[in-house]
Amino acid sequence: MQFRTRFAIICILLLSPLPARTSALAHEHEDLRRTPVVRAVEQVSPAVVNIQASKVYEREVNPFSGFFRNEEFPFFQDIFPSRKRRYEAKSLGSGVIIDGSKGLVLTNAHVITGASNISVRLLDGRRFEAELAGSDPDFDLALLELDIREKLPEVERGTSNDLLIGEPIIAIGNPFGFRHTVTTGVISALDRTVEGDSGTFTGFIQTDAAINPGNSGGPLLNIYGKLIGINTAIYAKAQGIGFAIPIDKAESVIQELVDYGRVKPVWLGISGQDIDQRIARYFGLETLSGMLITEVFPDTPASRAGLTQGDILLSLSGVRIKDKAHYLRLIRNMTRNRKAELVVLRDSDKRNISIKPEEFERERILELARKRWGFKVKEGGESLAVTRVIPKSPADSLGLRPGDRIFKIAGQRMKTNEDFLEAFTRYRLLNSLMMYVARGGQGYHVRLRM
Question: Hey, is 302 helix, strand or coil?
């Protein structure tokens, strides 16, 4: 009897601490589950938004639309006016709130391109109408401003200057419309250059975190939940490769979008030509890559950096230049006063030169356009009207006359003066380009040769 009593007491003593120990173990397991990734996601998710962009477009309904195009036969618009039918298309993307007080959302430009109505939805279900504060397709970045009455959650910005290959990262977005999907991975590479349909993008972060359609514009985070990039692209030819715009590069773009609604074009102040076999033999080059500098304009970054006519530009910010068209695409992905590193060949010696691009000012663009292309324009409805043709210029040799209407330059629609400035900035080094010109109600495709 005494033995049984002692045994019962021992059992009670052994069992009595069990609930406390179980609670402690459960708490310890909970701490193990709440990893840095979980904490980062909990911290940032309220600032990640789902973006819905509605795009309204019109399609012409004309009994002759299958036979003639209005741009090729402008006079048909007067004889057989088209009826237009309106359609609406919707697209989904992601974004992240970078300023909760002002309601500013950073996303990709391609997410909202052509949108007539933009709305965003937060994790807690709140929905806001958004206005486009600024966008630039050359950087694939856009800034939205929400109509808010109170401060919203925002992401803490980090830096992309000290990223390590192999360090863990987190991506949050809305792939295929699935809200707030989290993927993880590592930084696979830095300073990647990606050739896209809309341009050449430099300095990308490469990651193996899954980035699918709908993820575009969402945040790339470090393990502390700080914003280090904006997810922007998928390499279509392979799986497990995604890209993001580094936040340090995005910072300079954000400020210009706030100030001007776009990123002002920059230039170095040079003209150039492609490397052909004759030039390659003369300079002893093994390949035809690069650009021969044919002119250095005074009082420009190039002249101050000591570049001279006859130098061969081999690379720009670590990217080997293929030709002058490639050089122009690279320049379009740069901002003012952000240093670029050039590799230049001079007298058989390679030289490294640091240079800061400057704004390609409007008056300078117009002045160079008059000299290189040889004509001036003004806005005129659905096209640009030629107002002056410079004697003995490429435009004069082509036979262009005041009063001619220009509908397209190098395939780009010409409706505003900004369209013309954009075209010259993009194609100023080409030796020839196609234009669509109308005269007397008849349209012509012509080639302007410089």
Answer: helix
Q: How far apart are CA 348 and CA 284, in angstroms?
A: 8
Measuring CA to CA, which residue among 434, 392, 395, 428 is closest to residue 411? 434
pLDDT score for 4: 59
> Quick one: pLDDT at residue 180?
83
Query: Domain 25-62+69-263: which CATH class?
Result: mainly beta
Domains 266-359 and 362-449 share a fold: yes
CA angle 151, 157, 161 (to 5 degrees): 165
Predicted TM-score (pTM) of the model is: 0.78
* 239-to-112, 180, 210, 211, 284 alpha-carbon distances in Å: 26, 21, 9, 10, 41
DSSP structure string for 25-70: HHHHHHHHHS-HHHHHHHHHGGGEEEEEEEEEEEEEE-TTTTT--T
Report the b/e string of 173-193 with b at 16+ CB within 10 A: bbbeeebbbbbbbebbeeebe
Q: Where are the domains of the chain?
A: 25-62+69-263, 266-359, 362-449
- Single out the catalytic residue among 91, 94, 110, 326: 110
To the nearest 10°, report the CA torsion of 180, 173, 118, 83. -110
Of 140, 311, 404, 419, catalytic: 140
In single-letter form, the type of residue at position 404 comes to: D
Residues in the chain: 450
Region 266-359: CATH code: 2.30.42.10
Is residue 347 flagged as an active site residue?
A: no
Task: Give mean pLDDT in consecutive 10-residue pieces for the chain, a chain of 450 residues.
Answer: 56 54 59 87 94 74 53 53 64 90 94 87 92 91 92 94 94 81 92 77 89 85 96 69 91 89 91 93 90 95 95 92 92 86 92 93 94 94 94 95 95 93 92 93 92
Q: Are 51 and 95 in contact (CB under 8 A)?
A: yes
First to last CA, the chain: 115
Known catalytic residue at 317 = no
Cα 257 to Cα 356: distance, rounded to the nearest angstrom? 20
Q: What is the pLDDT of residue 336?
A: 85
15 HSE (CA, 13 A, CB side): 6
Told to judge if 82 belongs to the known catalytic residues of this protein, a careful annotator would answer no
Catalytic-role residue among 119, 160, 216, 393: 216
Q: What is the CA radius of gyration of the chain?
A: 29
Q: Which CATH class is domain 362-449?
A: mainly beta
Task: Supply the pLDDT for residue 114.
Answer: 80
Rounded alpha-carbon distances, angstroms, from residue 276 to 284, 315, 348, 380, 450: 12, 17, 17, 41, 18
